[in-house]
Amino acid sequence: MSQRDNDPITTQFTAVSAPLLNGPRSACVIVIHGESLGKRADIEDTPVIIGRSEEADLHIPNKSVSRQHCEIWRVGDSYRLRDLKATNRTRVNDEPVTEGELADGDHITLGESVLKFISHSSVEARYHEEVYQLATHDALTELYNRRHFIDLVDKEIARAVRHRRSLVMCIIDVDHFKPINDKYGHIAGDGVLRQIAGLISSFVRGEDVAARIGGEEFAVLLPESDLDAALAFSERLREAVELTDFVINGEVQRMTISIGLAAISDARRERVPLMHAADVALYRAKGEGRNRVCVES
Ligand SMILES: Nc1nc2c(ncn2[C@@H]2O[C@H](COP(=O)(O)OP(=O)(O)OP(=O)(O)O)[C@@H](O)[C@H]2O)c(=O)[nH]1
After folding, report:
1. What domain range includes position 274?
2. For 203-231, how does the pLDDT look when each residue is reduced to its tens digit (9 = 90+)?
C-alpha cells in the first residue's frame, strides 16, 4: 500500500461499476408517489399506455387513475404525452395537458399518483430500478415476492378471462423442511430454499410467473397452460427436486416437494378461489404421502 492510499485527504479513484452503467437505456417513466411506487415502463418503439386497466403497459391499480389515462410515445429523439380523456386530466408539472412534448425530469400526475419522466440512462433511473427490484423480489431466492406475485396473478387472471384462455396455478411446498433447519441450522436451510428456487427458475418459461409466497412455499402461475401441460411441468419439477443432491455441511441430503394445481374456471375467475383450490390440492398431496402432484378439478 502506498503513502497515497493511507492519506485520508486523497480522493481514491473509483471505476464506475457495471451495474450503474447497465441501467435502462431508453427513456422511461417511474412511479415516484402513490400506488405502484417504483414501477417503471420503458418507452421504446411502441406507445406506452398508463392506466388502471390490468392490460395497461404501466398498470396503476388506483381508483383516481382512469383505465387508460395517458400514453407516451417516441417521435425521433423526442417523447410526447397525450391525455386519453381521463376523468382526472393528466397534468405535467402541475399543468393540465391534452398533448405535449416531455422533458427530462417532468412530473406527470395521474389522479393521486405521480410519475417522473427520465429521458435517458441515468444514475437516478438505476436507483429507482433497484428500489423496484427490492420491492418486488424475494431477497433470499430472487424470485418474485408474495405481494408482487398477487399483483401479477390479478393481471394474468383478468387477461385470461377476457381472452378466454386457460391458466393454471401451482402451489409448491417443500416436504419435511423443518428437520433440515433443526439438524443443520437456518442458514443451511436457506441454502436449500435457494437451490429449490433455482430449480423452479430453470423449469419455467418466459411467460410463467414464479414466486416465493411463504417460508418454504413457492408458486408458479402458468398462463395459457391447460391442466395436462401444468401436470407435466409439475411432475418434471417434482422429479428434478427428488433427484437432486442437496449438499449441506458436506452431507448429501435428498429433498422432495408436494404440488397442488388448479385451473381457472367459472367458479374460479378470481385470485382467492383459484389459490384456495390449489391449496386444497396441495393439502391433499401432503395427506396422501407428499412428493406428489395433486389437481383440484
Ligand atoms: N431456513 C429457513 N427456514 C424457514 C424459512 N421460512 C420458514 N422456514 C421454516 O420452514 C419450516 C416449515 O415447517 P413446517 O410448516 O412444519 O413444514 P415441514 O417441516 O416442511 O413439513 P410438511 O410441509 O408438512 O412436509 C419451519 O421450520 C420454519 O421455521 C426461511 O426463510 N428460511
Report:
1. 146-295
2. 999 899 999 999 999 999 999 999 999 99
Question: Does residue 96 have its Cβ closer than 6 Å to ligand 1?
Answer: no
Pairing mode, strands 167-174 and 40-43 = unpaired
Do 150 and 116 have their domain in common? no
Q: Which of 142, 174, 216 to mutate to test the pocket of ligand 1 (most atoms within 8 A of CB)?
A: 216
**What's the pTM value of the predicted model, to 2 decimals?**
0.78
Q: For position 92, which CATH number holds?
A: 2.60.200.20
What percent of the chain is modeled with pLDDT above 70? 91
ipTM of the complex: 0.96
Distance, in Å, from the CA atom of 107 to the CA atom of 90, rounded to the nearest integer, reads: 10
Q: CA-based diameter of the chain, in Å?
A: 75
Give the 3-state secondary structure of residue 16: coil
Same domain, 58 and 189: no
Any domain includes 1: no
Q: Report how far residue 197's alpha carbon sits from residue 126's, in angstroms, rounded to the nearest whole number.
A: 26
Q: Say how far apart CA 242 and CA 256 lie, in whole Å.
A: 5
Distance CA 197, CA 203 (A): 10
Same domain assignment for residues 157 and 195: yes
